[in-house]
Amino acid sequence: MNTNKYTRQYFLPPQIEKYNNWTSRTHVDKAPVWCSVDLRDGNQSLVVPMTLAQKLEFFALLCKIGFKEIEVGFPAASDTEYEFCRALIEGNLIPDDVSIQVLTQSREHIIRRTFEAIRGAKNAVVHFYNSTSQVQREQVFRKSKEEIIDIAVEGALLVKLLADEFEGSYRYEYSPESFTGTELEFALEICNAVIDIIEPMPDNKLIINLPATVEVSMPHVFASQVEYMCANLRNRENVIVSLHTHNDRACAVAAAELGLLAGADRVEGTLYGNGERTGNADLIALALNMYSQGIDPGLNFSNIPRLTEAYERLTGMEVHQRHPYCGELVFAAFSGSHQDAIAKGMSFREGELRGGNGNFLECALSANRPYGLGADL
Questions:
Q1: Which of 2, 105, 248, 272 makes the best surface tag, with the fewest CB within 10 Å?
Q2: Is 210 exposed, middle or buried (0-12, 13-18, 19+ CB in 10 A)?
Q3: How do beta strands 266-269 and 33-36 pair?
């Protein structure tokens, strides 16, 4: 446990003082594009992965909540995930306004197998990636920066080629895996190389996803890294900057929020923060944090108890009693002074309602009116 064994593993932007503009913003003022990765990142973290039937039920659940982009798996990695893609497409189970997303390494045979899995999809995002971090380059792949760029470029060329060969409608997403352990200038270089190949257009934008594959810094450092990328990516108006934060330092939600302040457009995460190791960004917490600032997140979490029941049944995971917004005890108080304050607060609100305050009345009625997810789950 000698602290001399450890070093900081993140990289700051050059001229760091230029990339702190996000600090002048006090809250996220609009909902991002949400992408659930429960069926891929979340599923691969389960001791017993979901069956095909469970995945189909979970997909329908995510659609009811209002997700328009759902990563459904790594179809080249297992027969179950391949068959899941085919079942969704052949069974016409994907709403017209929902895009499925599939993950693939930037390797030819895996990319080809992935396109076979999503053949005929009405709307699909092909998410290809390769690792770019200094540690991975030196210790795992033993490749130069130029060779790592070649892997990304070859992947980009192939997905464009196959999109023309396979029936379906496709968009693209690229991730420099282990972004947070990558020198910022190199991360920018490789992402711009992919952008130059894909040539995104206003009607078919490219998603550049910046994953905190392992969380190695405080959230404000991540925000400055995101702002640097947003400011320097080529063809930025046709690029959607996405975040995929992990919770190794227990800061995934904070990092995602600060990353949105720094200019990101999209967030990938999971319900209840499920994911490998300590998990991903909790999309319920992120969405309901927006409600607390008067921003509509565009997701329907009107019946969290039923959602929790379905989640626990399908995944075999348990939601902690103190889980933000969702735990059984988060709205319970055992201290007498807290109970007294809650009772007086309820009494005050009841008085406001009887006094004809329309805002309070509408809020109260809405909170108790079953609709959407609450009615259907």
A1: 2
A2: buried
A3: parallel
Q: What kind and span of H or E run contains 86?
A: helix 79-90
**Taking the model in full, what pTM does it have?**
0.91
**In Å, what is the CA distance from 144 to each residue of 135, 139, 180?**
12, 11, 18
Q: Could you tell me the two tokens for 293? A: 């600032």
Output the DSSP codes for 294-315: T---S---S-HHHHHHHHHHHH
Q: Compute the distance between CA of residue 4 and CA of residue 177 in angstroms, rounded to an integer.
A: 27
pLDDT score of 125 more than 90: yes
The pLDDT, as a whole number, for residue 350 is: 85
The secondary structure of 151-213 as a DSSP string is HHHHHHHHHHHHHHHSSS-EEEEEEEESGGGS-HHHHHHHHHHHHHHH--BTTBPEEEEEEES
Residue 84 has pLDDT above 90, yes or no: yes
Q: Burial letters for 215-252: b for 16+ Cβ neighbours within 10 Å, e otherwise? A: bbbebbbbbbbbbbbbebbeebebbbbbbbbbbbbebb
CB 50 within 8 A of CB 291: no
Residue the block writes with tokens 């995930």 = 81
**What is the distance in angstroms between the CA of the first residue and the CA of the last residue of the chain?**
48
What contacts 344, CB < 8 A, 6 or more positions away? Answer: none
**What residues does 103 pair with on adjacent strands?**
127
Q: Which residue has the tokens 């079942």?
A: 87
Task: Convert the pLDDT of each residue in 278-292 to its tens digit.
Answer: 999 999 999 999 999
The set of residues, in sequence order, having a beta carbon less than 8 Å from that of 46 and lying 6+ positions away, is 274, 315, 316, 317
